[in-house]
Design brief:
Blueprint lengths: L1 E4 L5 E5 L3 E8 L5 E8 L5 E10 L2 E4 L5 E5 L3 E8 L5 E11 L4 E3 L5 E2 L5 E2 L1 E3 L4 E5 L7 E4 L3 E2 L8 E10 L7 E8 L5 E4 L2 E3 L2 E7 L8 E5 L13 E4 L3 E10 L4 E11 L3 E3 L3 E2 L10 E2 L1 E3 L1 E9 L5 E6 L4 E2 L12 E11 L4 E10 L2
Parallel strand pairs: 5-9, 11-18, 20-25, 27-34
Antiparallel strand pairs: 1-2, 3-4, 6-7, 8-9, 10-13, 12-16, 14-15, 14-17, 17-18, 19-21, 21-23, 22-24, 24-25, 26-29, 28-32, 30-31, 30-33, 33-34
């Protein structure tokens, strides 16, 4: 396509193939001077290349031109010059890959020891990849859902990172996980004693700004939110005192049994009137906090008339055969044991009056 001027001054244009041209000239002596010129044609170089960018990316073409924010396919021609001065045409096709994105699901607080499952949704067909660092250097797993339980070493706040990897990987997205965990541990001093019993509770549980305590004393009284309360048990019995510890996410409980014992007493009447008037009709042992009572009744000649074994046992003034005993003086032998461990062995006389 170029042109050339031969020695005789003739110019030929649009040369596309080799040309052999003869110039007929005259020397200074008037003789012929023949110049045969061979013109070779250097080709125009044409090359096609392909490149890819992420949507919104930029690319610099061979001629130095930079195109930014590329969102659709681009075909660009760079017109360059070879070392021979001929055209060098480069046609560049830029294909656009979609920019991947990922949405990580929010993880509700869990307790230490629970399973942790991380989930996320990607925008394309890339791989959901999880990391333990914000730079994306430490991969801990792939896929969704992903079991990250092994990453939890105790209570605290953990941050994981996720992206969708592919031709145009998404940016890292942070996922925060709150892992709670508390431990309940209590002491009680004393754990047993006579009523009213004052118990001082000790608290060796977890501490922290978000940790709260609830004491349930087990006797139906109001609860307490103190760290180490003192409580008075006014009635006899066994009570389960429980401490509930929570950090707002998890909770733990600890319990202790409090035994409240009543001091035993025993009272043996010296007269009874079995006349069926509904008042004082039986001879019985009265007392408080008795565990067992054994009683035997004898007449003045030492004959055993009746016996019983039980706290509520009594004598109605009759023999074991059912016959009424006459008015008079009778004798008892009473053996009893109190809930407080006291042993009683009583003997004496009483009157039967009809």
């Amino acid at each position: 396509g170029g042109s050339y001027t031969f020695p005789d001054g003739t110019t030929q244009t649009n040369i596309t193939t080799q040309v052999v041209y003869t110039s007929n000239l005259t020397t200074s002596n008037g003789c012929d001077s023949i110049v045969e010129t061979t013109v070779n044609v250097n080709p125009t170089y044409f090359n096609q290349e392909t490149a890819s960018v992420c949507s919104g990316g930029s690319y610099t073409f061979p001629d130095g031109t930079t195109q930014t924010n590329i969102t659709t396919q681009v075909v660009y021609t760079s017109n360059l010059t070879t070392t021979n001065g001929c055209d060098s045409i480069i046609e560049t096709t830029i294909n656009v890959n979609p920019q991947l994105s990922v949405v990580a699901d929010t993880i509700s607080p869990i307790c230490n020891g629970d399973n942790l499952t991380l989930t996320a949704t990607g925008s394309g067909n890339g791989t959901i990849t999880w990391y333990s660092d914000a730079t994306g250097n430490n991969v801990i797993g792939t896929g969704s859902p992903f079991n990250a339980t092994s990453q939890i070493t105790g209570p605290g706040i953990y941050t994981f990172y996720v992206n969708e990897t592919g031709a145009c990987s998404s940016v890292l997205t942070a996922v925060n996980v709150v892992v709670g965990g508390v431990n309940a541990s209590i002491t009680a001093t004393p754990t047993t004693g006579f009523m009213p019993l004052t118990v001082a509770f000790g608290n060796n549980s977890s501490t922290g700004a978000t940790v709260t305590y609830t004491w349930v004393f087990g006797d139906g009284s109001a609860t307490s939110n103190q760290n180490e309360p003192t409580h008075i048990y006014n009635n006899m019995g066994n009570y389960i005192a429980t401490l509930i510890v929570t950090d707002g996410v998890c909770y733990d409980t600890a319990s202790v049994v409090i035994e409240v014992v009543g001091q035993s007493t025993i009272l043996i009447p010296n007269v009874f009137t079995p006349n069926a008037d509904g008042s004082n009709d039986v001879f019985t042992v009265k007392g408080t906090n008795l565990e067992s009572v054994e009683g035997e009744i004898y007449n003045r000649w030492g004959q055993k008339l009746f016996s019983w074994n039980g706290v509520k046992g009594s004598w109605d003034g009759r023999t074991e055969a059912g016959s009424e005993c006459p008015d008079g003086t009778y004798f008892y032998i009473i053996k009893a044991k109190g809930l407080d461990g006291a042993d009683y062995h009583k003997t004496g006389a009483f009157s039967l009056i009809r």
